[in-house]
Amino acid sequence: MQPIASPLTRRRLLAGAAGAPALLAGLSGGDAAAQSGGTVNFIGWSAAVDQVRAQISAFERATNVRVNYENFPWAQFRTALVTRLVGNAPIDVSWISDAWLPEFVEAGWLADINDIPQLMRYNADAADYCTQSMVYRGKQYGLAYYGDHMSFMYNTELLERAGITTLPTTWEEVVQQSLRIKQQGIVEFPLLLSLAADTWLIEFVSALTYAFGGRMVDDAGNAVMADANRGAVRAARFIREAIATHRILSPGAVETGEINGLRAMGSGQHAFAIVPTYRIRALNDPSQASAAGKIRIALMPKGGPDGTNNTLGWIRFYGMTPAAKADRARRERAVRFMEFFGGRDTGGNYSMQKLLLTDVGLPSCALPVNQDADVTAFWNRWAGGGAVIAQQAMLAKKKDTIAPWFGEWVETSNQAWQAVCLGRAEPEAAMRTAAAKWTELRRAFR
Amino acid sequence: MLARLNRKFGYDERSAAILVFPVVAVLLVVAAYPILYSFWVSLHDIVLTRPLRRPFVGGDNYLRIFGDERFWLAVSRTTVYTVVTVVVTTVLAVLVALLLNETFPGQRILSAVLLVPWATPSVVNGLMWKWIYDPTYGLLNALLLKVGLIERYRAWLGDPDLTLMLIANAAVWKQMPLAALLLIVTMKAIPDDLYRAAKVDGANVLQRFVHVTLPALRPGLMLVLVYETMISIRHFDLFLIMTQGGPGDASFTLSWLIYVETFRSLRFGTGAAMSYVLAMATFLLSWAVIRWLGKRI
Amino acid sequence: MAAITCEKLTKRYGSVTAVDRLDLAIGHGEFMVLLGPSGCGKTTTLNMIAGLEEITDGTLRFDATDVTWQPPHKREVAMVFQSYALYPNKTVRENIAFPLQLRRTPRAEVERAVADVSEQLEIAHLLDRHPSQLSGGQRQRVALGRAIVRKPSVFLMDEPLSNLDAALRLSMRSLIKHLHQRLQATFVYVTHDQAEAMTLADRIAVMRGGLIQQLDTPDGIYSRPANTFVASFLGSPPINLVEGEIAADGRFARGALRLDLPPGAVAPGRAVTLGLRPEDVAAPAPGLASLEARVTLVSPLGSETLLEVVAPGDVALTLRVPKEWRVRHGDSMTFGIDPARLHLFDRQTEARL
Amino acid sequence: MAGRPLAPRIGRAVLLAFFSALFVLYVAGPVAWLVSSSLQTEAQITAIPPNWLPPEVNFGNFDAILNAAERQVTYETRRQGDPATGGFLPSGAANLIPSLWNSLTVGLWVAALNLLLSVTAAYAIAVIDFRGRRATLYTVLATRVVPDIALIVPLFLVIRNLGLINTLGALVVTYLAITVPFTIFILISYFEGIPRDLYRAARIDGCGHWGALRHVYLPLSLPALVASLTFAFLTSWNEFVFALVLTQNVAAQTLPIVISGFVMDFTTSFSFVNAAGVIAIIPPVLMAVLFQRYIVSGLTAGAVKG
Predict the structure, then answer these.
(1) CB spacing of D204 vs C156 below 8 angstroms
(2) Which of A105, A430, B57, C198 is such that its CA lies 20 to 30 A from the CA of A446?
């Protein structure tokens, strides 16, 4: 038994991690590694699995390095990843959400890549907000897996049936049109927001908050969400009224996760929705959605007196563990892997970035990819063109709540937003609760 | 010397030591040590995302808990959930035991059916009921609509007033069988003469139940109450699968709070302190139930 | 053969002392009965001899060997239990063979021994049955068989006949007696039944409260009980005990009742308890003390008649008289009592005077 | 019976039938619905109103589970599209059968070791009068008072320090901590019900404690032993929280973990999840029904004594 004091120190984490991999690699079928150029242990969540696998096949062929790939459902991913990191599991590369960056860096779970020019050079090709989303305290911690933003989507057929010809440009108009659709008995809840208390909730409410011209946290890091004029209060009140006053948003929204919302939108049950942009591919896929072909994207409506067309953008990226970076051979393999997936492959192409976009619809951070004819064709085929998406992308802002205490704060925040949806708390009070927690955690962070 | 040692530890004691040793060894490593270690952790401000600091804070974590609104909220949710689960489980179990204690054709088949929920993994239990409660495709909506109890589909788990009860229902479904089994076993031990005597004394069915069955069930009931309380108070699987503490804070129980504190906020110190509070509460509660019922037997 | 010596044998359970510094020497081939009411410590003593209970204090010897700390399976004792204690999952044959098998006796020898024993006990036809298919008497024979098959030098019997009905008990009693004579082994027999004790024992140790009250031959115990407890425990119906004192004239006095005692037995004025066995009365005759009493109940037993009488001083007594005496309820009679057959005990210490 | 008037007998029959029907509806209904759902296609299962019974029995989901081999995916063989709106086999589908074996392995090890450990300890506590007997008993039982969730973190660290993270061994050891106290409790109750004289006879006949255990207590407590085996296996089969934390790779994950992954990952087809649920139910239910007799008599000693 180790002395009690040691298990949690970073030094031990690193030391342990160096010995454990060999042991565990043997358990998880690492025998192939003996004859080849070694193994990269990569974990991701269960998304674009076939694309990842296809790329892995290509990577293994090109480099003779094996990839030990595991994936977990998104809902379990963070917990699983953290447990593995704490448990000294032999992870080389992992998908990371931008929201976890400061927390993971502070915990010593991510290694920066500033001293790896082989990876840093891709910044030249990357959208600036993507790069900025991977930087914490002046250091960059990875290469982008994809970058996306929240889009305002509508169902052309339902609008037509209601005789609506002009798209809403403000959330007030969204309410008016929704009421019209509702009164005509076309659908019961024309507006869809997926407000289940999962990892997506903060993304949805942040998008709405930006559209209402508000913020969660100001540039100085102070919580302003409860501020009546520049906070999230207006967005919160909008949700509350949409559910309770106008009844255009289902009270079941609190139980609707992102995917279930997607299903409902795809089955033509809603006229308007906020949806991650990349989902447009699924929504317009006849094999998946009965409303396929009728879902289009408009610019995010402005909300309230200070409304903007802004939306929320986020990125997910490939991060390397310090354990991998500390070991020369592992580091070398991990870097090759990250480059092959987050940058260009050995043939000099952004093959993974393009694959993700044209197969799944995941927008790339690599600007050259967007010039690709296939990509243009993709947007034309699935979204009726890429102009609005490109325009909206320029208006995307990253979450202003990203901080080392994000993981803890978001629990409180989620509950506060849900309380608003359920009518259990006034928007002001709920946002004050969230703000107070932010302030408390920020103060406690030394 | 050997004789003196022999005198101190005779054959019996030496044998007992050898026989008990493996269990004690295993439990020391996987139960006693973690329990004590958990206590040590609860005295430190250990946050996993801040691996370099780990100050000793003594009872501060405990004080923090008691000053934490979430804790008291979780206590009230847990209390409601536990009371509902235990009471409904026990009442249903008594009814089922009465039914299955009768002799009738098919009784053996029903007894076998009774074991199905008990053997069902809690994860499957959770997904099964979640599927039944599903707002769009669920059985519950279809059933109630058909019977005319509701006019339109509802998001059952999304209703904060119902969530806790619906989860409790899933828990009851799984736990009731074991409770019923224990009660049936206890009932079988009631001498027939007691019923015959009560019949001769002119007691009707209900009076026989109240005056003969119920008092004789006391030991079984006590076991059921203690056991059900101890496991209900710490239920976690169902909450993770079905609601994740939501909607809002509607199913925010202590176990869930501990999970969130430990594995999402990664505050091992306060998480461990909360665990200890829950452990103490469980212990005191079982003790109280035993004392309370024990006195009345 | 083995002699058993208990020296200051003590058993305590927490603060309760079950057996208190018991000294007992049992000779080679002796049939020793431990007699007493339940809770007197007789079974605990037996268990300590068997090794089934650890000895808290004192020494136990088989012949010269100190076996105080020897576990039972090392002690070469056999035991028969009130509940028979046959292994329900084994057949009769397996039950009897079990102790031999544990001693790794060759198979042929085991078979021979089992056949031999079952012959002796007339259970040969039951060998392939399970205990649940046997009657009580048969079970106890099997239990005896399991005990004797090992030819041990010490037999321990814990109320072996108590679960049997009266008739069986008698025949088993003689069976055990025969066994003892044939085997020439040391027997320690625990019972609360005085008749068993009297008929079987070479010597009886009467126990109460963890202490031996009296250790003597059956006759000695019966005719010279060491104290009122022993006196009243043996005999059926029990001895009559009357509290009183010694009058100035040396006679026993209780109210109006006066009884002659052997001269000079006890100093006058002493508080005593008088013991009179029911059968120790006769027709009035010279040399006998006479006792006037009124008959309140007559219970014929066939060979004899039991009487309940009230003597002067409202002293109720039970007496046993020959059936030839024609006695009727309400008669007043005079009985003759041999003073030498009266027992006197100190009222305080209850000890024989 | 024959002599009693007819009316009460009919009344009783009607009452029994009524309550039996209610009972079956509540106890078996949900599982029946799960099974029914697992035998439908995704389209049938998402019909509104739902199909109570499968329009036609379709084993496609089970087929998919049994044949969900890990296939080699290349650019050419990849499936396009975002498998977001369900109807898709989850990417972990191929893990289901291996996890089934993991569950089985862990369950059998736990059942066996649990019995081995518990039997000796229960014998000692129930039969031998030794110093520290009560203390041992209470200590063993007290370890179950602490909620599992409280043990997760320290246990995780212990298991990590033992180098057992992501091994089935970690689960076996952990589950023993859960099952052993309960089994000891059951076995003590049962052992105490075995006549003391049998023990004394065995000791006199020449058995040491091992012998008495082997020749007397084990053969006579078969129901309790089988019940303990069943309890331990089911506990292990059903356990979720510890497995969630202690095993994070496919090689060591048990069935509940893989299934919970499907449930949380709602890209998965509903019918597939239901089929996975049915597969997870079959072994424990079979075992429980098969050993029903033993379970009841195994419980008897404990329940009646209180």
Answers:
(1) yes
(2) A430
ipTM of the modeled complex: 0.81
Q: How far is D213 from chain C (nearest CA, A)?
A: 13
**Cα–Cα dist C216/C230, whole Å:** 11
* Cis upstream peptide for B247 (omega within 30°): yes
Q: Is the pLDDT of residue A123 over 60?
A: yes
Report CA-CA distances (Å) from A258 to A422, D99, D264, D268.
18, 28, 12, 13
For C41: left if phi > 0, alpha if psi spans -120 to 50, otherwise beta; the answer is left
Q: Taking a C-beta distance cutoff of 8 angstroms, is the pair D223, D292 a contact?
A: no
At residue D140, does pLDDT exceed 90?
Answer: no
In a mutational test of the B interface, the residue from D1, D27, D258 whose CB has the highest number of chain B CBs within 10 Å is: D27
Find out whether the peptide bond into D49 is cis, omega within 30 degrees of 0.
Answer: yes
Of D81, D160, D266, the CB nearest to A281: D81
Query: For residues C135 and C129, what is the distance between their CA atoms, to the nearest angstrom?
Result: 11
B14 touches chain C (CB under 8 A): no
Could you tell me where the DSSP H helices lie in C121-190? 136-148, 166-183
Q: Which of B78, B116, B124, B256 to mutate to test the interface with D (most CBs of D within 10 A)?
A: B124
| pLDDT computed for residue B293 by the predictor | 63
pLDDT of D225-257, one tens digit each?
A: 998 999 999 999 999 888 888 887 777 889 998
Distance of alpha carbon B13 from its chain centroid, rounded?
37
Domains defined for chain D, CATH in brackets: 6-59 (no CATH), 91-305 (1.10.3720.10)
Residues A73-89: what's their mean pLDDT? 82
Q: How confident is the model at residue B68 (pLDDT cuts 50, 70, 90)?
A: confident
What is the rounded CA–CA span in Å between residue B5 and residue A442?
A: 64
What's the CATH number for B59-120+173-296?
1.10.3720.10
Nearest one of D217, D184, D224 to D199, comparing CA atoms: D217
The pTM score is: 0.84
Burial of residue D163 (CB within 10 Å: 0-12, 13-18, 19+) is middle
Gap between the Cα atoms of A126 and A142, Å rounded: 12
A207 φ, ψ (degrees, to nearest 5): -60, -45
Phi/psi of residue B247, nearest 5 degrees? -70, 150
Query: Do A264 and A270 meet the contact criterion of CB atoms below 8 Å apart?
Result: yes
- Of the pLDDT bands very low, low, confident and very high (cuts 50, 70, 90), residue B192 is confident
Structure tokens at A203: 């993304």
Sign of CA dihedral C320, C326, C332, C337: negative
Query: For C201-277, where are the E strands, in sequence order?
Result: 203-208, 211-216, 240-246, 252-254, 257-259, 271-276
Of residues B177, B183, B181, the one with CA closest to residue B117:
B177
Site of tokens 């037997």: B297
pLDDT in tens, D189-224: 889 888 889 999 999 898 989 999 999 999 999 888
> Over 60: is that where the pLDDT of C327 sits?
yes
Residues C223 and C247 in one domain: no
User: What is the sign of the dihedral through the CA atoms of C47, C52, C55 and C56?
Assistant: negative
Rounded distance, CA A77 to CA D239, Å? 20
How far is Cα of residue C101 from the mean position of the Cα atoms in its chain? 34
Which residue in the block uniquely carries the two structure tokens 């059926």? C236
CA pair distance B33, A379, nearest whole angstrom: 59
Give the model's confidence band at C324: pLDDT under 50 very low, under 70 low, under 90 confident, else very high: confident
* Torsional sign, CA A24, A27, A31, A37: negative
Nearest C-alpha neighbor of D246 from the set D168, D178, D181? D168
- Subunits adjacent to chain A (3 or more Cβ pairs under 8 Å): B, D
Return mean pLDDT, chain B. Answer: 85
Per domain, the residue ranges of chain B are 59-120+173-296
